[in-house]
Design the sequence.
């Protein structure tokens, strides 16, 4: 594998501790309990997805520098981290959508300001991210039913520019762009 093109996100600092401090020390965040739970978990999931992405990126970059010394353990482990990233992005997006709906029905000015921030999030989880996540989660069914031809990958494979599984693919750039969008929204919500 030549040098993969993956952006480093290690500079994106975890926001969960800030949200926890605001919620528990200042009673900040949405006034509705369900909205508050979605708010806290959205930020937690964004932090989690970024940590998993960084673990995968480090494994893939290390493997590309010294493939002989790493064996196949690095790409296999990285594929597990990427599976978690994609699943967590979809979960975070669901939290954001639920939060936006709950905040829109609120009478609180603070809740409506938060709703404006969440409403600006336009993560395309119905596109390639959700498609790849679904391909991963339904892989066993597809293998058992013979729906993955022999000439296609039957495992999630990290490549030079992205991930492949069967007829599905997604670039590292798409994943990274989505994570940065989620992070920007989480950062605003964590203020």
Sequence:
């Amino acid at each position: 594998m030549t040098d993969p093109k993956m952006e480093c996100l290690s500079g994106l600092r975890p926001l969960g501790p800030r949200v926890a401090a605001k919620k528990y020390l200042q009673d900040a965040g949405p006034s509705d309990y369900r909205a508050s739970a979605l708010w806290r978990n959205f930020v937690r999931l964004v932090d989690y997805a970024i940590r998993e992405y960084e673990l995968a990126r480090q494994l893939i970059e290390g493997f590309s520098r010294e493939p002989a010394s790493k064996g196949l353990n690095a790409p296999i482990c990285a594929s597990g981290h990427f599976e978690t990233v994609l699943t967590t992005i979809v979960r975070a997006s669901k939290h954001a959508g639920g939060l936006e709906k709950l905040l829109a029905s609120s009478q609180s000015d603070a809740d409506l300001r938060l709703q404006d921030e969440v409403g600006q999030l336009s993560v395309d989880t119905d596109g390639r991210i959700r498609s790849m996540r679904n391909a991963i989660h339904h892989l066993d069914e597809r293998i058992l039913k013979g729906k993955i031809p022999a000439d296609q990958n039957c495992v999630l494979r990290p490549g030079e520019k992205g991930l492949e599984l069967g007829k599905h693919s997604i670039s590292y750039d798409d994943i990274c762009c989505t994570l940065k969008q989620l992070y920007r929204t989480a950062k605003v919500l964590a203020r």
About this structure: The chain has one domain: 16-189. Residues 33-65 form the longest helix (33 residues).
